[in-house]
């Protein structure tokens, strides 16, 4: 025996992103009243889907917006920035800045603003040993972690990062300098590493000078300047070259 139970028609519109059905489609008591346990129950239904809504649901990938922190903070740095509570004065150019941000990113600025120094009293920091473009790039990194001037001022930024204790910037500059190391820049880089006590950089440059480029390096203006200003580095280079030759025997 086959029980035929005619019910409906029923229509239910599912909302977008909902996936449950209609709990009133078939009443249990009606089913038990009209069918025996040995009967066969056949449920026939027709489902019509809105293709546009289905595709929208499948393709709707909810992702958070990308961070705008760097972009937003960039509006706070530069000669046109607003709400600065301290001025960085370099060669007549004024760069408005914010003590809280400078202090958070540089232990030197932090110590400067924590004590009743002239910079704190006058809310002005005068810098006479760093060029304005370098200070602008330094501030840009302090505020946004972005670097756009390594190709032209990596050495100058390295020095500024060391002076104001911005270790991440100094590390970026070191990596760039060593990536671009050549016979023309080796002597200058060795002097830089020696001056700032950067042992890792110095070791890397000495290894570079111990290779096949040694003859070219000695012909550069940088080598001549190093021989004049830092003769001890010439001695260290020669010892490194001799050590390299001994290890190859």
Automatic annotation (TrEMBL):
- Key word Nucleus present in the record? yes
The taxonomy runs:
Eukaryota, Metazoa, Ecdysozoa, Arthropoda, Hexapoda
> What GO terms fall under cellular component here?
nucleus
For this chain, the family text in UniProt reads: Belongs to the Tdpoz family.
Question: What sections of the protein cross the membrane?
Answer: none
In its keyword annotation, does this UniProt entry include Nucleus? yes
Q: Where in the cell is it found?
A: Nucleus
Q: Which UniProt keywords apply?
A: Nucleus, Ubl conjugation pathway
- Primary location recorded for the protein, binned into one broad class: nucleus
Checking InterPro entries in the record gives: BACK_BPM_SPOP (IPR056423), BTB/POZ_dom (IPR000210), SKP1/BTB/POZ_sf (IPR011333)
Q: Which residues form the BTB domain?
A: 84-151
Domain of life of the source: Eukaryota
Q: What is this protein called?
A: BTB domain-containing protein
Question: What Pfam families does this protein's entry cite?
Answer: BACK_BPM_SPOP, BTB
